[in-house]
Structure formats: C-alpha cells, structure tokens
Amino acid sequence: MRQTTVRAVFFDVGETLVNEERVLSALADALSVPRHTFYAILGAALAQGGDYHDAVNRLQPGFDLSAHAANIRLTEADLYPDVLACLNALHDQDLFVGIAGNHAVQGPLRAVLAAHCNWLQPPGAAPNKPHRAFFAQFTHAARLPPQHILYVGDRIDNDIHPALDCGMQAAFLRRGPWAHAMPNSAAAHCTFTLNSLTALPGLLC
User: Fold this and answer.
1) pLDDT of residue 184
2) 95 with 205: CB under 8 angstroms?
3) Contact 162, 138 (CB under 8 A)
4) DSSP readout, 133-172?
5) Which of residues 32, 53, 70 is at a domain's end?
6) pTM (2 decimals)?
7) Among 8, 23, 158, 185, which one is most buried in terms of CB atoms within 10 A?
8) What is the CATH number of the domain that holds 129?
9) What is the Cα–Cα distance from 12 to 18, expressed in whole angstroms?
10) Which uninterrupted H or E stretch holds 181?
C-alpha cells in the first residue's frame, strides 16, 4: 500500500522498458543453438535462481557475454508500447522521472529515452543492483528522501526488495521471464503490482 507521496519515479530497463525478445534471439543465434532451446535453458536457470550468465555458461562456457551485449544496438522499436506514454504522463504530473538499470542505455535508444525523462543513468555511474549504492544515486539525482521515490522493476530479488530495503517505494511489473517465475506471494510488500505501465500514472495522481 502506498504510504507517502511519490515525487519521483525511477525505472529499471530490461523487461521494464525494453522488450528483450530481440536481444535473447540474437544471443541464441550467437551461441549457435535453436532459439527454443536457449529459451528452455534460460527458463531452467531462472527456476534455479540463476540468470542469463548461467544459461550461457551451460551452453558455451567462456562465451564473452559482455562483448556480445556491447554489439547490440537498441532502438525505439525495442521499447514496450506503453513506455513513452507512461513517461510523458508522469512528466506532465510534475514527477521527476529517472531511468537506471544494471547496464546503462547506449546508442540510439539513449537519445530517445533522454528526451522523455529528467535523469538517465550515466555509464559506470554506480555498482550494479542489488547494491545499496545503486539505489542511493536516485536520492542524489532527484534531491529527495527515499520515501518519496518509487522504483519500478520486473525482478523481486534485484529491483523490489533492494528498493524497499533502502526505504523507497516499489512497483512490481509483471512482465518478462523473471516476473513470471515469481510466485504471487513474492509481491506482497510492493507498493503497487502492475501488469503494464499504462495504469501507473493514474495511481500516482
């Protein structure tokens, strides 16, 4: 339940703003495995508490995932359809809007998102989630105490629980593989649980 007024909203990137289907398909191709095989291995890794790295290491130990990711050029077409309308609506409500994930947005998509938010995480700005320093950068960027900040993400372990532990509010977005791997009870302490970003501006009026 919402406890205090939200004055700033920060968003995760992967599967919150960006549909990673094209990224995952490209990764399967780079690993020279059928896409359905990669998805099955990834699903098994998630079920065991793992992530992309575990799936990749199982299929091709030593594969340079960072180098592969650096070659992916995300564009506006990779955004979920509800993203820009949500960012614009929040901005129209005079809310501070920020974007930050474990991998800073680069390339053409960075220019698109920069035009729709107040703050976009600089490359190498802070340790990765779930480190507290990752979330601490939000209070400095928005110049607000944590209780007035809402973080929106698709992962309970990396997004929701760490944000709540830092005194922030948190919205769990049920989309993407990690979100659907979580039991319904996992979102019990969230400020909001969302099925899309469309409803978020109305919840913050």
Assistant:
1) 65
2) no
3) no
4) HHHHHHHHHHTS-GGGEEEEES-IIIIIHHHHHTT-EEEE
5) 70
6) 0.90
7) 8
8) 3.40.50.1000
9) 9
10) helix 177-181
CA distance 6 to 146: 10
pLDDT at position 135 is: 95
Report whether 98 contacts 10 (CB < 8 A): yes
Are the C-beta atoms of 103 and 69 separated by less than 8 Å? yes
Tens digit of each residue's pLDDT, the chain (205 residues): 455 799 999 999 999 999 999 988 988 999 999 999 988 998 888 878 788 888 899 999 999 888 887 788 899 999 999 999 999 999 999 999 999 988 778 889 999 999 999 999 988 767 888 899 999 999 999 999 999 999 999 999 899 999 999 999 999 999 988 777 776 666 778 999 999 999 999 999 8
The answer on 140 and 83 residing in a single domain is: yes
Same domain, 113 and 35: no
How many separate domains does the chain show? 2
Q: What is the DSSP-derived secondary structure letter of residue 88? A: H
97: β partners = 9
Q: Dihedral angle at the C-alpha atoms of 149, 135, 103, 118, nearest 10 degrees?
A: 40
Q: Which amino acid is at 181?
A: A
Q: How many CA atoms lie within 13 A of 182 on its CB side?
A: 23
Residue 153 phi/psi, 5° resolution? -155, 170
CA-CA-CA-CA dihedral for 66, 197, 48, 131, to nearest 10? 60
